[in-house]
Amino acid sequence: MGSEDAAGKTGESAAVSTAVNFAEQAKDFHEGVKAPNRSFLSICKSLFAGGVAGGVSRTAVAPLERLKILLQVQNPHSIRYNGTVQGLKYIWKTEGIRGLFKGNGTNCARIVPNSAVKFFSYDEASRGILWVYRQQTGQEDAELTPLLRLGAGACAGILAMSATYPMDMVRGRLTVQTEKSPTQYRGIFHAVRTVFIEEGPRALYKGWLPSVIGVVPYVGLNFAVYESLKDWLIKHNGLEDYSELGVTTKLLCGAAAGTVGQTVAYPLDVIRRRMQMAGWKHATSVVTGDGKSKAPVEYTGMIDAFRKTVRHEGFGALYKGLIPNSVKVVPSIAIAFVTYELVKDILGVEMKISE
């Protein structure tokens, strides 16, 4: 019995030692990235702040978002929307104020969780990447480089896009519908159900590949440029931390980030939208293969969509809607970043981006 007791005590000691080692490793991890433990309440607050940021920023530019999509998919042989001002006036005249915000409810239903996941994922990815970077370099006070921020932003964008992509697919089709078009979709859930039944579950992810490829430079550059600009301003002006930067300064940083990101990724957004509309006979307009047939264009994949678009409409077609999109993106990204940080300050969330 004595030997059994000794063995039991030895096992208990080993278990305690293992638990202590795990606790010390976890402590080292958090101390290594100089960030507090993420409580459940803190995570919820961070997700909420990201959702609010997405909803506010997207609603503020909803008319420009709808016009951008209409410009992207309209038939080049039947032009209805010719520029930002003319396009907005035409929508107002033919559909009223409700037309300017058509699809915004669906858009917010998608962008709120998308934004929540994106900002939260960026926070967490930044912490993880920073820890690995410090372990590899042996520099405990090392900070994130622009390239590492680009990687963290890319991870966040891919996760957010994949999680909410079916909502984006449905939002695109609801946005393209007009009162003169045959009514097919009555709302979000009806659209999802109709697409699932008539076109199959894979149709809900049409254009997913160019979306994921496009989100890497877009979201990655947004975060990398925004955070790097703030770092530069703090060091250049001899400030203590991010809280000393004014709202106007942060808005300008966000505007610059949005401009860079959307310019690089815009062609992929056009291809994604066209792939989403492919095969849907009730779209407002379809791009015909020979300029005469009214049959919807079918794409075998992302490369085929690029090839057919450039061949039939020229390279400039990849930038259709870029002007209203630029007008939209500049305030949208800026508002999203600043709103996110303001809401986190109000809620008292301990960890901010890049801290």
Features:
355 residues; mainly alpha; Mitochondrial carrier fold; 11 helices; globular
Description:
It is found in: Mitochondrion inner membrane. This is Mitochondrial solute carrier protein. Keywords: Membrane, Mitochondrion, Mitochondrion inner membrane, Repeat, Transmembrane, Transmembrane helix, Transport. Belongs to the mitochondrial carrier (TC 2.A.29) family. This protein is an all-alpha fold and 355 residues long. It has one domain: Mitochondrial carrier domain (Mitochondrial carrier fold). Helix 2 runs antiparallel to helix 11, helix 3 runs antiparallel to helix 11 and helix 9 crosses helix 10. It is globular, with a radius of gyration of 24 Å. The N and C termini lie far apart (56 Å).
